[in-house]
């Protein structure tokens, strides 16, 4: 029975209670071996192998069994070997493996305590505990995995007992591999812990970083070229140029070339219609002969970037072309080549920009009109949607100039447009563009002027026109865009200085000499000169923004006031600069003329200003002269309001009566508008003053010189015209003095001629008699007319 119970093959394996794996001791000593179960007796193997002992100490490897139950192969072998031992010894308990004594453990611990300080021991203990927890968790996972594998192997052995021996060998190899892998992992963790402990004991001391070496000095060879390089501030560049001793060296030429390039690019980029007159002198101050390639390149690039400023760039080129025709030709050649390149590549944006530039060069008379006609012929020879669209835009830009310079050529171009429109092979959108172009031509290119007034800077006789054909072989001279050392650099610079003086005049040369002296002087002298220049500089507003704002304020004040007193009080509070009083008078007169009917409000307001300050009285006198000279431009309603306004000022003596001297009442010197103005003026005066007081004013002996132009006495014809005019408007009463003068005119003439006849001979006497005989019938005729009027 005992033998049968021991044999594993005869009975199924017992179910043993699995013990939890023992925790490692703190001193990392091998765990004690537990006694086997008292129910199972086995004799120790005579020569236990170290691998088996190690596996037994670590929990039986990957088999997942308890430490008291050996693997199946060892169990069979022990049963076979223990039979004679049991019989001889009587079934004694197996001997326990040797165990380390407590003295040895204490001695090892004391050695470690002596070697490591308390703080470090705590840290090491914490790290070991964490490593033990991780290793225990890893061991639990491995044991669980090994138990599942062993359970599967047992099922397999239960089915096939012959595979027992082979499974035992595989499990031994597996346990051996697992034990070696665990040992390697523990050694690696111990090594990592020691390294970390050493690193904490001796912390690394960071050495201070050495200071950076000073930057190398800037050399002329380090100046950036086309491909980039070091950025050098302008003041540093000027300092480097002053430090160079040899002014003809290649390094200095390179510095001056870069400075010239930056200056030209800056001036071209900031030019516009407002400041072009200031940019041109600055541009001529640069060496355009040396930088002509740079100037052309900058103009073309800027025009490509902003086609809306094409007319400004063309005006700038036109001014430069008057002094340097070769620069104008070079730019025209490059633009034509750019146009041909874009036409071959079907690059529509570049083609539009190039054609627009050529159109404005034609408007500025820099390019001949034949270039424009030839270009239009090429574009319309084989019409496509894009080519016709480009041609329409080109004609819009320069059609007004072509209409003046070559009307027959422009007529032929429009006939070609009409043919394309009738063919109908192009898109509807382009057909509408052509129809719009015909409408613009019918309106004489209104809205598309050839040159804006602010850009008309060159007289036609001063302009130099270049004639270039699109079929010619043209050289763009691209080598002018690149720096090249010049052996005659100093001589060329002096020659351009002389040329610049002749172009800009003596003032520019004086300014340049002064600037050279300032550069050579100390910094204090420069600062004092700058302060003097700032004091002398005056800022002038050429846009008239302040003037427009002032007029707006005056208008709103006049229109928003309740009565003339409030308006006068508000207007006097406006701070006017000297010379701006005229603007107030003009705005008051304009507001009065814009009303449907005359308002006495404006007359009272003008009277108040004339009474306050004599400056306003003089300004209203100027306004009277200006309005009378432009009276034919006013409508009837405006004319009536202006006449009543000045009549109010004259009737209240706010305006002196000598202003009437500007009115000459003759048939030749008056128009229908001026006669209506005089009629309304004197009718209003008669209403204000009455006919008697008006007659006294006009007969004042001190003012007769001012009224001679209204009541002329130089010729009977003019006198009769004045009498008839005032009689027709119902003011014949003010012409009584003039009638008496006309009645006595023959007698006065005779009295003047008597002394002349006594002195002269018989011939003169006969002439006087004939004249007197002619004058008598005329006087008789005038008396007859008067008698007829009285009878009527």
From TrEMBL:
GO terms for cellular component: catalytic step 2 spliceosome. Residues 549-665 form the MI domain. Signal peptide: none annotated. Residues 508-536 have a biased composition (Acidic residues). Residues 13-24, 142-160 have a biased composition (Basic residues). Belongs to the CWC22 family. This is MI domain-containing protein. It comes from Leersia perrieri.
């Amino acid at each position: 029975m005992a033998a049968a119970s021991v044999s594993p093959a005869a009975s199924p394996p017992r179910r043993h209670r699995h013990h939890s794996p023992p925790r490692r001791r703190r001193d990392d000593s091998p765990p004690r071996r537990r006694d086997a179960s008292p129910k199972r007796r086995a004799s120790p193997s005579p020569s236990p192998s170290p691998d088996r002992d190690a596996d037994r100490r670590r929990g039986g490897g990957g088999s997942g069994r308890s430490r008291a139950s050996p693997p199946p192969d060892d169990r069979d072998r022990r049963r076979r070997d223990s039979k004679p031992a049991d019989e001889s010894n009587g079934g004694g308990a197996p001997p326990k493996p040797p165990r380390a004594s407590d003295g040895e453990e204490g001695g090892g611990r004391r050695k470690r305590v002596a070697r490591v300080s308390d703080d470090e021991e705590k840290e090491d203990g914490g790290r070991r505990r964490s490593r033990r927890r991780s290793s225990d968790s890893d061991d639990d996972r491995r044991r669980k995995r090994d138990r599942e594998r062993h359970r599967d192997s047992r099922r397999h052995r239960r089915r096939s007992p012959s595979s027992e021996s082979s499974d035992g060998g595989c499990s031994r190899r597996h346990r051996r591999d697992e034990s070696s892998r665990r040992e390697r992992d523990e050694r690696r963790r111990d090594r990592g812990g020691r390294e970390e402990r050493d690193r904490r004991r001796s912390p690394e001391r960071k050495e201070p970083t050495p200071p950076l070496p000073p930057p190398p000095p800037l050399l002329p060879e380090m100046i950036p070229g086309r491909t980039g390089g070091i950025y050098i501030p302008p003041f540093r560049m000027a300092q480097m140029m002053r430090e160079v001793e040899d002014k003809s060296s290649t390094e200095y030429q390179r510095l001056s070339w870069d400075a010239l390039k930056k200056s030209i690019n800056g001036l071209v980029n900031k030019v516009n219609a407002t400041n072009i007159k200031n940019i041109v002198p600055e541009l001529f101050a640069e060496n355009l002969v040396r930088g002509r390639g740079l100037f052309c390149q900058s103009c073309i690039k800027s025009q490509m970037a902003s086609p809306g400023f094409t007319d400004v760039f063309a005006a700038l080129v036109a001014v430069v072309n008057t002094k340097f025709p070769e620069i104008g030709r070079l730019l025209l050649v490059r633009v034509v080549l750019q146009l041909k390149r874009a036409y071959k590549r079907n690059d529509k944006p570049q083609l539009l920009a190039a054609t627009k530039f050529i159109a404005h060069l034609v408007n500025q008379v820099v390019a001949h009109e034949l270039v424009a006609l030839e270009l239009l012929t090429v574009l319309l020879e084989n019409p496509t949607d894009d080519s016709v669209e480009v041609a329409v835009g080109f004609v819009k830009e320069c059609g007004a100039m072509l209409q003046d310079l070559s009307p027959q050529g422009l007529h032929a171009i429009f006939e070609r447009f009409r043919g394309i429109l009738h063919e109908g092979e192009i898109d509807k959108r382009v057909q509408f563009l052509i129809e719009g172009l015909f409408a613009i031509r019918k309106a004489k290119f209104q809205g598309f002027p050839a040159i804006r007034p602010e850009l008309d800077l060159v007289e036609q006789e001063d302009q130099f026109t270049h004639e270039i054909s699109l079929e010619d072989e043209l050289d763009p001279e691209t080598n002018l865009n690149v720096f090249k050392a010049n052996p005659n650099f100093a001589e060329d610079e002096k020659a351009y200085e002389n040329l610049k003086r002749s172009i800009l005049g003596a003032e520019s040369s004086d300014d340049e000499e002064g600037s050279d002296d300032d550069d050579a002087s100390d910094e204090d002298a420069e600062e004092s000169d700058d302060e003097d220049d700032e004091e002398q500089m005056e800022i002038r507003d050429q846009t008239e923004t302040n003037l427009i704002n002032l007029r707006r304020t005056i208008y709103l004040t006049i229109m928003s006031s309740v009565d003339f007193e409030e308006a006068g009080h508000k207007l006097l509070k406006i701070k006017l600069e000297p010379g701006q009083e005229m603007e107030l008078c003009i705005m008051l007169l304009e507001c009065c003329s814009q009303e449907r009917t005359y308002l006495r409000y404006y007359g009272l307001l003008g009277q108040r200003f004339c009474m306050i300050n004599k400056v306003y009285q003089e300004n209203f006198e100027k306004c009277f002269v200006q309005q009378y000279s432009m009276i034919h431009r006013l409508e009837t309603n405006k004319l009536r309001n202006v006449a009543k306004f000045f009549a109010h000022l004259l009737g209240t003596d706010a305006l002196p009566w000598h202003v009437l001297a500007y009115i000459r009442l003759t048939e030749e010197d008056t128009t229908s508008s001026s006669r209506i103005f005089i009629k309304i003026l004197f009718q209003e005066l008669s209403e204000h003053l009455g006919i008697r007081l008006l007659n006294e004013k006009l007969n004042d002996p001190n003012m007769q010189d001012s009224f001679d132009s209204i009541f002329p006495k130089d010729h009977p014809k003019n006198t009769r015209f004045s009498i008839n005019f005032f009689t027709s408007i119902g003011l014949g009463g003010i012409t009584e003095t003039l009638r008496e003068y006309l009645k006595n005119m023959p007698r006065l003439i005779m009295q003047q001629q008597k002394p002349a006849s006594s002195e002269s001979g018989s011939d003169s006497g006969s002439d006087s008699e004939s004249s007197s005989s002619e004058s008598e019938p005329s006087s008789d005729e005038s008396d007859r007319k008067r008698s007829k009027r009285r009878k009527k």
